[in-house]
Design brief:
With 404 residues, the protein is an alpha+beta fold. The protein has 14 helices and 14 strands. The protein has one domain: Orthogonal Bundle (Cytochrome p450). The protein has a 5-stranded mixed sheet with strand order 1-2-10-7-3. Strands 4-14-11 form a 3-stranded antiparallel sheet. A two-stranded antiparallel sheet has the order 5-6. A hairpin with a 2-residue loop joins strand 8 and strand 9. Helix 8 packs across helix 10 and helix 12 packs across helix 14. It binds protoporphyrin IX containing FE.
Length: 404
């Protein structure tokens, strides 16, 4: 592929999975690449591990207030999520919001999540085996976030799936699988966001009367300078946890099953050595790079790899490329469940490093232990369909044959 044909804003960029060659070329030849856009503007695309880690770690020169995504609803500085939603805020507000949100990731909550996810995954696998197979993407993978949402937010299985349907539509806003894509993208995102807010508004009304041990109750108890948070701050951060956690963990689960299917020796090794599960999950995270990139905006004139970055420039950090950088990962294009060290950037790094990483590790650990335990066999049984998105690499359909 000629590098001149790259369009990193194209929602089809990952559909055919031909981008690894392109990123290898960029890392070798133009690691700090100025990517022009159709409107005459552009953004920086960083592809080398060390440059990307350096920008993640410099939250003074690179702001998160433009949100993590190019274009879409989070781009403009006028977007009301700036400074209100954890992922779209800078210190000191980021520290204050993160502290409050952190209560929902305490060890006792993670234990509850583990119990709920185990129950749902067991039931989903049993049903798939009874039926001879399933669509893993919709029948099993979505039970990971469902269990987490139930345990973290104190809602029913039905409500959890209602929320997952909404966040799927938000992340998949450019994919016709999730609805009509012919109208205005911003409008579509605004409508889905309003539906997510409506979902949480109902829960907020209930928790004001009946507080419990859940995210919404914790955020309703949060205070800044002795004053309770305005409701919009509660809403934005409930949405952040839901959008941050629902699709990432389920799409990573799909990518992991596909990787093990395509690397039968690694699958056999994992079956024979369940102790490798944690290491396998980390390799699956590196391999899948579900959150393909995040964005920052330069707050001052600065320099990366000899290129002048101007204040106000958008800078994109391509995790998907950093995770295949040979300078950090020997034999980077080899899927190796014993890889060590494995300092992948799939959760980012620095002050915004994924607050839900402990939840994702727990969910994925449970799933891959169950899938590789004695006697269970799975194989691909039809076409894999990939999400149309340049932000999240996902699999929306993956028929599997399953038997014991
Ligand atoms: C495989 C699963 C996951 C992946 C690949 C992933 C990826 C990421 C990445 C790359 C960031 C950093 C964003 C940035 O620096 O701008 C992040 C932050 C975040 N993630 Fe995750 N995530 C995952 C699971 C989860 C889960 C399960 C939750 C919640 C239950 C969650 C909630 C969040 C939140 C709230 C933030 C913002 C943290 C902050 O800005 O301080 N994530 N995630």
């Amino acid at each position: 592929m000629s590098v001149l044909t790259i369009d990193l804003t194209d929602p089809d960029v990952f559909v055919e999975q031909r981008h690894y060659g392109m990123f290898a070329w960029l890392r070798a030849n133009d690691p700090v690449h100025w990517h022009t856009t159709a409107d005459g503007g552009g953004f920086w695309a960083l592809s080398a591990y060390d440059d990307i880690a350096a920008v993640y770690n410099d939250h003074t020169a690179y702001s998160s207030e433009g949100g993590p995504m190019l274009g879409g609803s989070f781009r403009s500085q006028a977007d009301p999520s700036a400074g209100r939603m954890l992922v779209a805020s800078d210190p000191p507000r980021q520290r204050m919001i993160r502290q409050a949100v952190h209560r929902a990731f305490a060890p006792a909550v993670v234990k509850r999540i583990a119990r709920q996810v185990t129950e749902l995954v067991d039931a989903a696998i049993t049903k798939a085996v009874d039926d001879g197979g399933c669509d893993f993407a919709t029948d099993i993978a979505t039970e990971l976030p469902a269990g987490a949402v139930m345990a973290m937010m104190g809602v029913s299985h039905r409500q959890a799936h209602e929320l997952i349907d909404l966040t799927r539509r938000m992340i998949g806003f450019r994919d016709p699988v999730f609805g009509d894509t012919s109208d205005d993208e911003r409008l579509r995102l605004a409508v889905i966001q309003a539906e997510i807010f409506e979902f949480f508004s109902d829960i907020i009304r209930d928790r004001r009367k009946n507080p419990g041990e859940d995210l919404v109750s914790y955020l309703l108890q949060a205070e800044t300078n002795g004053r309770p948070w305005p409701e919009e701050l509660v809403l934005y951060n409930c949405m952040n946890v839901a959008v941050g956690g629902n699709e990432t963990s389920s799409y990573t689960a799909c990518a992991g099953v596909l990787a093990l299917h395509e690397h039968p020796r690694e699958l056999e090794l994992l079956r024979a050595s369940p102790d490798l599960t944690e290491s396998a999950v980390n390799e699956i995270l590196r391999w899948s790079s579900t959150n393909a990139y995040v964005m920052r905006v330069a707050t001052q004139d600065t320099e990366i790899g000899g290129k002048q970055i101007r204040a106000g420039d958008s800078v994109t950090l391509w995790n998907v490329s950093a995770n295949r950088d040979e300078s950090q990962f020997p034999d980077a294009d080899t899927f190796d469940i014993t890889r060590s060290p494995n300092r992948h950037l799939s959760y980012g790094v620095g002050i915004h490093r994924c607050i839900g990483a402990i939840v994702a590790q727990t969910e994925l650990g449970i799933l891959f232990r169950k899938l590789t335990d004695s006697g269970l066999r799975f194989s691909l049984d039809g076409e894999v369909r990939r999400l149309r998105s340049n932000f999240i690499q996902g699999i929306t359909q993956m028929p599997l044959r399953m038997q014991r």
